[in-house]
Write a structure and sequence with these properties.
single chain; 353 residues; alpha+beta; Ribosomal Protein S8, Chain: A, domain 1; three-stranded antiparallel sheet; 10 helices
Amino acid sequence: MAGAERFEVADLGAFARAVLEAAGLEAPLAAATAQTLIEGDLLGHDTHGLALLERYVAALASGGMRCAGSPRVLSAAGVARLWDGERLPGPWLVRSGLEELMPVARRFGLATLVIRRSHHIACLATYLVQAASEGLVMLLASSDPAVHSVAPHGGTRGVFTPNPLAAGLPTSGDPILIDISSSWTTNGMSARLHQNREQFDMACLLDATGLPSADPAVLFTEPPGTILPLGGLLAGHKGFALALLVEALTGGLAGHGRADPAEGWGATVFMALIDPAAFGGLAEFKRQMDTLVERCHENPPRPGFERVRMPGERGLGLWREQERLGIALSDPLAAALRALGERYARPFPAARK
C-alpha cells in the first residue's frame, strides 16, 4: 500500500478493543473481534480487517449484533456440534468453536461445528493460522442467508453471497492457507471500488439485464446487477457448484438458511478440524505437503510470473513484515477510524515515525 501510514500492531489492537467496548461489546468478545480484524489486515485482507470496525459498531448500536451472551447449544452428538450463535460477534463464535473442537479432534480425529445465526465472521484465513499451528487441518465455510448478490451460472438475479470456502494445511514451514470465494469477486471489494469510482479490470459482474460489466455501480441500481460465479461467463458452472456446496454445509446442516426469513447481515458457518495423527500421522502429512510445496516452488514460472507462490504465502510474508514495520492503513481508512475514535472518545493511535 504505497504511501500509506503505518501503525503499531498493538496500538491498533488496543484501539479496536476500546472502541468495541465503548460501543457496548463485552470485553472478551471485543478482544476476540479486535484480534481477528487486526489479523485480517496483517494478512493483507484489508476489506476484512479494520475496515469492518465501523460496520460492526453500527451493528452493535442497531441491535443487529448482540453485546453479550453465549451461543445456544442445539445439539452435541459425538464429534458433531450445532450452535445458535444468537447474533453474537462471528469472530468470537468461531474462535470459541475452535477451542471447543480441538480436544474433540485430538480424541476422535475429527470434529465439526455448524453455527447458525452468527454475525459476520470477518477474514476466514485468520482462523486457519491458529488451527495449522496446532498441527490440525481446518475446513471453514460461510454464507449469509440475508444477502443475495451472486447469480447462479446462467442466471441474472442474485441468490448467493460470495460463499467463501477455506482450508488450512500444516507443513514443516508456513501453512498453506486456502481462502477463496465461490464468486468472481466479493461484496467488500465491489463496494470499495464503487465508493472510489473505480472499475474492475475485467467483466466480473452482470448488470440487471444480464450483460457483463466491470463497473461495480451495476450492483447499486434498482433492480441490482449481480456478481458472476467463480469462472465467469465461460466456466461459472464451477463457482456455481462451489456455492451450492457451501450452502449445503452451512444452511443445510444448520437447518437455517435461505428458506427462512432474513435477519440482517450475518453468517451461517461450517467448520471442521481433522487431526492427521488419527490417519497417516502428522509427520507423514507434512511430508506429503512439503513435497507439493517444493514441486510447486521449483516449477518453471510462465511469462509474467517470478515464481509459483503457494496459497497464503504472500499473506504470511506480509504479516511478518507488518509486525516488524507496522500495519499500513490507507489514508481514507485511517481518517474513518480516527473519526470513529472521536465519536467514542477513544483516541486513534499516532502513526509510526
